[in-house]
Amino acid sequence: MLSLTSQEKQVLDFLQNSVIGSYEIKDIANKTKMLNPTVSRAVLKLIKKELVEEIESKEIIIGEKGEQYKQKYLPEQQLYDKIIKIVEIIQQNNKTSIIGIPLKEVKEKINLTHVEFSVALGYLKQKGFIQVGSGMIVLLKKDKLLIPTQNYLYSIFPITRSEEIKKDSELFIYSVESTDDSQTILLQRGILVLAKIKKICLTKKGKEINISKIKSEIQFDVSAPVTLIYPGRRHPYNEVAKIVTKIFLEMGFQEMEGPMVETAFWCMDSMFIPQDHPARDVQDTYFVGKKGGLPDKKLVQEIQEVQENGGNTGSTGYQIPWSKDIASDLILRTHSTATTFRKFYFDKLKDVEKCKYFYIARIFRNEAIDATHLSEFAQVEGFVMADKLTLSHLKGFIKEFYAKLGVTKIKFKPVYNPYTEPSMQAYYYDEKLKKWDALINSGIFRPEALAPYGITKPVIAWGMGFNRLVMLLTKTKDMRDTLGPFCNLDWLRKRKLIEGELGDEN
To answer: GO CC annotations (predicted)?
Structure first.
């Protein structure tokens, strides 16, 4: 036996008593004062009971660009009206039949943007309302009428004219011009939009059924689909940052921080990168175009000596003149190691027995953007300072850190860095892609990099690509899928939270 809930009866009763044959769900909700999800559930049940059906149709509606013309005329109508008024004033004052007016004068007297004016002018010229040449507009039609596009739009959406528009056109008694290709023109301009509309209407059975004789249903269908609501949640970058921070804190590290706009001194010179290094080129570095201040003269002098001749480290340095002017250039930091050297100096770490610091930092490089490179990305910086540290300690740290993320298949390869020696790159094996990928760059700071700060203890350090870590933990293959304009919002809403180890699918 057929039974209906009170909500189904309310929807059915509304449709049976309505003059219009079909409605969108939002319109039914609005008319019946019911919530949209409630109406949606009731409609789904009525469809199952073959009392209503969903029909899809294409309708022309006012587009986003057309919203601004709800209380004013289209640009072409405004321009046409203004030209007629200017011509009338000229004729009344000069007692002449001249109908040509300067284009510049019209443009100055009408409140249209450059784009609106150009579109309106082109339309009136194409339709034969005006003629344009040698900086003059000649009016060809003098009738005060609604031009085709305006007339067509008015037939769909009658304009409630603002006081300004009323005053501007109060002397006009419009006749009507034919609509010809106006629909196509307005659709092309985005003023009108062809939209797919889903509406609900009664079936033959729904029209004939007597609601008053139907038994009321009080059961709840817990399997009925409802409108999905997506609550606020952490972005995967914030989620991974939380995981990384937790691991470092558990390993006894402290967090440090530094500015995104740095002087070249802290970002390059302070850490023994030569002033002719390719990374300083405009092709690789974003220059702010201004100068910044340098620290005290003693440190600057020691950095200069180490750069030019190695200072008291036993090194020969780079054997090239060092410039304070180059060092004071302001740049967007190209790596987070600048913060490490700030830490050495401002916290006087030469007197500290041992310390461990990390930093998750945004950095900037003029990179060619692809699946694994962005011009703005993040880096995880860190260092450990203590007596008798070796390359084996550094390898051990890297393995322990990544083991906490489920990455255990790691190998190391020697590389060159200006400020660390020895230096090495760590790679991990991607079981899914069956290939080795870069994981982390690391090394032991050179004496030339540490001497200006009075540090004689060994310092192991690393810089890992945070974005690639996000790719690992979210199981994505392209950085652009997790951040930026190409990121899929639907994926952000529905993706699984990162829990446990890297291989955890829950």
So the answer is: cytoplasm
